[in-house]
Amino acid sequence: MTKAGGIYIHVPFCQKRCIYCDFYSTTYGQEWKLLYISALKREMCLRRAEIDFARVPSLYIGGGTPTQLPPSLLVEVFQAISENFTFTKDAEVTIEVNPDDVTPELINTLRHTPVNRISMGVQTFSDSILRFLNRRHTSRQALEAVQLFLDAGYNNISLDLIYGLPGQTLESWKRDVMQLLTLDVPHLSAYALSYEDNTPLAEMLRDGRVAEVSDELSWQMYEYLMDETAAAGYEHYEISNFAKPGLHSRHNSSYWDGSPYLGLGPGAHSYDGESVRRSNNTSLDNYVKASADVPHQTEVLASEERYNELVMTRLRTASGLSLQLLSPQQKSHCLQMAEPHVFNGDLLLEDSVLRLSRKGIFISNSIISDLMY
Ligand code: SF4
């Protein structure tokens, strides 16, 4: 396996489930959290050699809801990490937090860990939509949580928003964006709502209890977001991600630039940076029962699949897809399929790099699918 790379730890606990979410998590209690920590430590020891454990550039603790682990167990996670891995001096260490879990006690716990970046799922500042989504927090709690972190000196904060939510209007989205910009945090991830199979929200869509927003409204929301974040000094460095200069997410960027990463925990994904992907099974029960390696699937990517992944990931970024990464045959296929999009201005081709134009971003999915095998 290619050495060096980041680490992702999946914490599969939520207090309750949001109706739109298809990430793997359970609402199991304390006893399962203890079992999970033991299994996680075991998996760390077993798999540490899959990356260069002596120089890890980024760690991301996500979920689920990592802050559903009580402080003592969060400390145990970091102890186990420090026993198994050594981070580069400037490593980015992110933890996802839920606004209503943010207390002075949590912040005090985090102070004793290497965490230097906070990712908070705000989703919207509309309380009625938060209730509809079955989110636990209110907009006020989100604002207070951000302030608590800022007061404690955590300036590297990323907030998540969702647009195209049922009940959301262009005006309410504008208020969300404006509210977020007044917080002046250095990073923002904004996702178009996706109706994922097997979620309560997708069932509501099938039953006609909610309706998708029109493409036109979705574009208006996205366009407003792009304009206002640009005016506020954010770089639009990936379709859904915006950052102040120098504060792009290293963890997210490693997914898009094909770096290897080690994913630990049930449901976590790993990549060797070349051709092997691994997915741990989404079962906490089986994860804690495993005596050796945890249940998982491994996939070896054929050259066409690797090309498709390159197109899919690189074209989402502002850096674009360098044709130098492609074999002569792939390059010729790519240029042939890109030609009509370059002609009508949806793709830009400069210095052997293909990039989405502003116009092209709105139809990125269809462009990406056209370029794939
Ligand atoms: S969105 Fe976050 S808090 Fe809500 S169910 Fe999914 S992982 Fe849990």
Describe the structure in your own words.
There is one protein chain. The model has no long low-confidence stretch (mean pLDDT 96). The chain is built from 14 helices and 15 strands. The chain has two domains: 6-256, TIM Barrel; 302-373, Arc Repressor Mutant, subunit A (Orthogonal Bundle), CATH 1.10.10. Strands 7-8-6-5-4-3-2-1-9 form a nine-stranded mixed β-sheet, with helices on both faces. The chain is α/β, with parallel strands linked by helices and 373 residues long. 40% of the residues lie in helices and 21% in strands. The chain has helices spanning 30-47, 71-84, 104-111, 127-132, 139-151, 170-183, 200-206, 215-231, 250-256, 284-289, 303-314, 328-343, 358-361, 364-371, and strands spanning 6-11, 56-63, 87-97, 117-123, 157-163, 187-192, 235-238, 241-243, 261-264, 269-271, 276-280, 296-300, 321-322, 347-350, 353-356. Helix 1 (30-47) packs parallel to helix 2 (71-84), helix 2 runs parallel beside helix 3 (104-111) and helix 6 runs parallel beside helix 8 (215-231). Helix 1 (30-47) links the parallel strand 1 (6-11) and strand 2. The site of iron/sulfur cluster (SF4) has 11 residues, from loops.
Task: Describe the SSE topology.
Layout lengths: L5 E6 L18 H18 L8 E8 L7 H14 L2 E11 L6 H8 L5 E7 L3 H6 L6 H13 L5 E7 L6 H14 L3 E6 L7 H7 L8 H17 L3 E4 L2 E3 L6 H7 L4 E4 L4 E3 L4 E5 L3 H6 L6 E5 L2 H12 L6 E2 L5 H16 L3 E4 L2 E4 L1 H4 L2 H8 L2
Parallel strand pairs: 1-2, 1-9, 2-3, 3-4, 4-5, 5-6
Antiparallel strand pairs: 6-8, 7-8, 10-11, 11-12, 13-15, 14-15
Helix pairs in contact: 1-2, 2-3, 6-8
